[in-house]
Specification:
The chain is built from 13 helices and ten strands. It starts with a helix and ends in an 11-residue tail after the last strand. The chain is of the alpha/beta class.
Length: about 300
């Protein structure tokens, strides 16, 4: 199990390899949220999301003898692109199993970084079975997109940077799907005596249901525009969510779209729906949780297709 010391070690390994992403504020956002808000903008991270932190850390931790065989993962998008970049920077092969419904933008990013894409049907069972087959064929190391202690430690460095730069925060808020970002950040938040909050789509609310039930429940038929949050909690991430996350806000897709548009309009940055879920949570019932106290939001990524009329 990853701990706070592992996040500190990950930060040392990643120094100079990941971007220390900017922190933005908005007076309009503060007014709507009813509290001071700072945004930790991982949409400006290498590969376009926080996922590069965990991928780069996991790749850096590989034994040189094993690393030459390459790495394998299954991912619908952001971790795929992040691992492809991390592998390319280390000069090792990368094989990515991607479901056929994955974003074309994210699939192309994987190919552009020199990785091999292996398509599979869009079910968790098919993803896992195909990845196991690729591991058997290549001898590559399987790196899970979120349910891995080295990945968790890497993701936690986002909260470490945030709280070092903004020490007066009362809570850290992050989107939650598989729990890699939220779990890693919770290690830092707990050590710094800061509350950890999460936000997830109403149509993919296994984390909220699990927290309410006190046991890990499966993700069933997720229905949301936030493609990065359709996965269920993992073996390593569930205990962190169970023990360290104080509140999970469910967010309907309509609110997510409005938050995505608000950020583009007022802060002039592009974020993906999975990031906008956390921003949208600020405008709902979360206003009444520790009202008025400052919150830092992890903006998880910005990998969306943008089209402009000629």
């Amino acid at each position: 199990m990853a701990g706070f010391a592992d996040v500190i070690a990950a930060a040392d390994r990643l120094r100079g390899h990941v971007h220390e992403t900017p922190i933005l504020t908005s007076h309009s956002l503060d007014l709507l949220a009813g509290r001071p808000v700072v945004l930790k903008c991982e949409n400006f991270q290498r590969s376009g999301s926080f996922k590069f932190r965990g991928a780069a850390h996991a790749v850096a931790r590989l034994d040189p003898v094993l690393a030459v065989r390459g790495v394998v993962t299954h991912s619908s998008g952001n971790f795929a692109g992040a691992l492809a970049l991390a592998a390319a920077l280390r000069g090792i092969p990368c094989h990515v199993v991607m479901p056929t419904h994955a974003s074309a933008v994210k699939r192309q990013a994987v190919l552009d970084r020199g990785a091999r894409v292996v398509p599979c049907p869009p079910t968790q069972a098919d993803r896992e079975a195909t990845a196991a087959q690729v591991v058997s064929e290549t001898g590559g190391m399987l790196i899970h997109s979120y349910d891995d202690p080295d990945v968790l430690a890497g993701q936690g460095t986002a909260a470490l940077e945030l709280l070092n730069a903004s020490p007066g925060l009362a809570a850290v808020l992050a989107p939650i799907g598989g729990g890699g970002l939220c779990g890693g950040c919770s290690l830092v938040a707990r050590h710094r005596h800061v509350a950890m909050w999460a936000a997830e789509p109403s149509g993919a609310d296994d984390a909220a249901r699990s927290l309410e039930a006190g046991r890990r429940l499966p993700q069933t038929a997720p229905d949301t525009i936030a493609d990065g949050l359709r996965t269920g909690l993992g073996r390593w991430t569930w205990p962190l969510v169970r023990d360290h996350v104080a509140h999970i806000e469910r967010v309907p897709d309509g609110a997510t779209r409005r938050a995505q548009a608000f950020v583009a309009d007022r802060l002039k940055i592009i974020i993906e729906p999975s990031s906008a879920v956390a921003v949208a949570a600020l405008f709902g019932p979360l206003r009444d949780v520790a009202p008025g106290l400052p919150v830092g939001v992890i903006v998880s990524g910005g990998n969306v297709a943008v089209r402009f009329d000629a």
